Amino acid sequence: MTNRSCLAVILAAGEGTRMKSTLPKVLHAIAGLPMVGHVASAAKAAGGDIALVVGHGADAVRTAAAKLIPDASVFVQAERLGTAHAVLAAREALARGYDDVLVMFGDTPLVETEVLARLRAPLAQGAAVSVMGFRAADPTGYGRLIVEDGELVAIREHRDCSEAERRIDLCNGGLMAIDGRKALQLLDAVGNQNAKGEYYLTDIVEIARRDRLRATVTEAAFENALGINNRAELAEAEAIWQQRRRKAMMLAGVTLVAPETVHFAHDTEIGPDTIIEPNVFFGPGVKVGADVTIHGFSHIEGAKVAPRAEVGPFARLRPGADLHEKSKVGNFCEVKKAVIEEGAKINHLTYIGDARVGACANVGAGTITCNYDGYGKFFTDIGANAFIGSNSALVAPLTIGDGAYVASGSVITDDVPADGLAIGRARQVTKPERARILRAMRAAAAKK
Ligand code: UD1
Ligand code: CA
């Protein structure tokens, strides 16, 4: 890693009307994180400060950025006059004097940290401008990279290209690294004499050459340049992101039985030797330890799962679910904001919310913690080794002591002491022969 100082200028003043959304384009999420968050975390991993350029009236972007990238300085590009003009909106940050300036697009979320490092490398060797290029099967619409004797001499926007230039398949990926000591002088020299009448960032290549400075191309995979303009492209980027993450997970020791059916969030953490069965969804905020089994069709978000625990199939872990070692949450169970202590078992058809289930307790099928009365949430505390009979309703607030026993079908409204037995249901009435008499009466009535 280089010790050169770096500023990443992230352009996010685009209108994004083709998303057909009230949400600004750069706030649409991939793996549960807004696109601009992906761009910022790649920039951060490359090391350095961040300047975010937003459009006029982009309060939603500003608000989101304050949470996602709290240390970024935010600038407004009041009029959309082109990419060079957008970078210059961050003039104050550029004037701080960095060694390297990276220009990134907020709608190009799949850029890899490794590519940023490669892109910056030529600056350390004396280049003034370093441009990320990619080969396109269909280069229509992209700026073309014009290379002579291995040197980048110009970037020509598609609209401004000659017939011969349009046949060049080496395209501008949009991403650029600029010598921080020259950036302002290069950008200030950009004019708007082109087909769109915009101040093109890409013109700094020719300007640099005129000043006898060097420009270079670094080639990268197309994904790094994938700009999102509509929801079909958003889904395409999501698919590529998921594919990358699945592969990384597997290489880190996680077994994915059917990788293409598992969906991760940007921050999912999973320990080695954990097995994920098909069709599992991870929302944001999940940490899973080593040696866990997540059975198929489970939906997990904001939850912690400790080593050797077992989850699912068809389990739902909601925010605040905290499963300790060797605990088990089985089929059709939902757990929310609850600690399931070591070795506790909740095997079937159960809702546990706002609760603690003590170590090695056993919660029978169909148990419900009644945690909500329409106004407030209440806590249920189940002690270690307690046994909750099937189909019990535990009406919170409630404490069930260690080793206590709740009879099946109970509605429990009062605390149960340790080692106590609670039965909260009507006593059974059995009438010998009554079924036979009933049948005879019904049959006689039906004949009439
Ligand atoms: C740009 C490049 C083109 C490259 C392509 C790669 C220029 C002049 N052209 O073209 O060579 O092949 O990206 O995708 O740079 N933006 C602002 N303010 C502006 C204009 C743009 O913030 O005034 C932002 C946009 O929100 C977007 C990015 O800059 O995130 C790129 O702008 P866009 O208009 O999409 O450029 P392209 O025509 O795609
Ligand atoms: Ca674009």
C-alpha-based Rg, rounded: 31 Å
CATH architecture of the largest domain: Alpha-Beta Complex
Average of per-residue pLDDT values: 97
DSSP, total strands = 35
Distance between the termini: 95 Å
CATH superfamily of the largest domain: Spore Coat Polysaccharide Biosynthesis Protein SpsA, Chain A
The description of the largest β-sheet is: 11 strands, parallel
Indicate the structural class. Answer: alpha/beta
Q: What is the CATH top level name of the largest domain?
A: Alpha Beta
Task: Please count the helical segments.
Answer: 10
CATH topology of the largest domain: Spore Coat Polysaccharide Biosynthesis Protein SpsA, Chain A
Topology:
Layout: E1 6-12, E2 29-30, E3 33-34, H1 35-45, E4 49-55, H2 59-68, E5 73-77, H3 83-88, H4 91-94, E6 100-105, H5 113-124, E7 129-135, E8 144-148, E9 151-156, H6 163-166, E10 170-179, H7 183-188, H8 204-210, E11 215-219, H9 231-251, E12 255-256, E13 269-270, E14 275-276, E15 281-282, E16 287-288, E17 293-294, E18 299-300, E19 304-305, E20 310-311, E21 316-317, E22 321-323, E23 328-331, E24 334-340, E25 345-348, E26 351-357, E27 362-363, E28 368-370, E29 380-382, E30 387-388, E31 393-395, E32 398-400, E33 405-406, E34 411-412, E35 421-422, H10 434-447
Parallel strand pairs: 1-4, 1-6, 4-5, 7-11, 12-14, 13-16, 14-17, 15-18, 16-19, 17-20, 18-21, 19-22, 20-23, 21-24, 22-24, 23-25, 24-26, 25-27, 26-29, 27-30, 28-31, 29-32, 30-33, 31-34, 33-35
Antiparallel strand pairs: 2-3, 6-10, 7-10, 8-9
The structure holds uridine-diphosphate-N-acetylglucosamine (UD1) and calcium ion.
Uridine-diphosphate-N-acetylglucosamine binds at residues 11, 13-14, 53, 77, 80-83, 85-86, 105-107, 142-143, 155, 157, 171-174, 200-202, 225, 227.
